[in-house]
Amino acid sequence: MAISDWHENDRPREKLIKFGEHHLSDAELLAIFLRVGVKGKSAVDLAQDLLNEFGNLHNLLNANETEFCKAKGLGQAKYVQLKAVLEMSRRHFQSSLEKGNAFTSPELVAQFLAHELAHQNRERFAILLLDQQHQLIELQILFEGTLNQAEVHAREVVKAALNANAAAVILSHNHPSGDPSPSQADIQLTKTLSQALELIEVRTLDHIIIGDKGRWHSMAQHNQMP
Fold it and tell me: 159 Cβ partners below 8 Å, 6+ apart?
């Protein structure tokens, strides 16, 4: 059955307009990007086939040109279009944080961080370095670890803050499991790093944990900061 024959609330484009993009599955979002399917398959069916082939959305979005173009229904034009969309999205969030007060918008910070940390199969630890107005100086990925742990060294975090002349930082890491809830180890790490940064008069404003499917956890919002 063609998508045009589906109930209006089930069609990806109409569903997005009516309910918002967060209510769409990965396959539905990808189908909107693809626009059309192939013979015998709707755009949603093709999108699901591609997700199955690549394993997940992250692998598809990060595939190199050769891998991407080999897949049925894709090609160089789609590859270029996708890379442009991803880069525009990244620049949009980065520009917003550079011009505005990052600490006042954990949602925006989480969306920006998701570009670097979401859908990873290894834990990565990042730091947002901020100036006196809490505007973004730069994002640094400091550590990368295993499926469920990244070894984080306080001296490297302090060094990054000093080198950037940062006045404040926002810590972040991802949970490859998809659940962004902080562990006791996460809470203890936040305390350790906050104390180390305090010695050089750098404030730790938040620790944001990135999960999957748009999920994230702000320790500041949940009163879990030391």
Answer: none
Smallest Cα–Cα separation from 181: which of 218, 206, 213, 150?
Answer: 218
- Tell me the pLDDT tens digit for each residue of 177-226: 889 999 999 999 999 999 999 999 999 999 999 998 789 999 999 999 99
**Residue 43 burial (CB count, 10 A):** 23
Q: Which residues make beta-bridge pairs with 138? A: 129
Cα 173–Cα 33–Cα 66 angle in degrees, nearest 5: 75
Q: Please state, as a whole number, how many other Cβ atoms lie within 10 Å of the Cβ of residue 145.
A: 15
Closest to 142 (Cα-Cα) out of 119, 104, 116:
116
Return the closest-CA partner of residue 125 out of 137, 141, 112, 111: 141
The answer to whether the CB of 119 falls within 8 A of the CB of 51 is no
- Give the CA distances from residue 36 to residues 28, 70, 78, 86, 202, in Å, rounded to whole numbers and listed in that order: 12, 17, 12, 20, 51
Residue type present at position 209? I
Across the strands, what pairs with 129? 138, 169
Q: Is 91 helix (H, G, I), strand (E, B) or coil?
A: helix
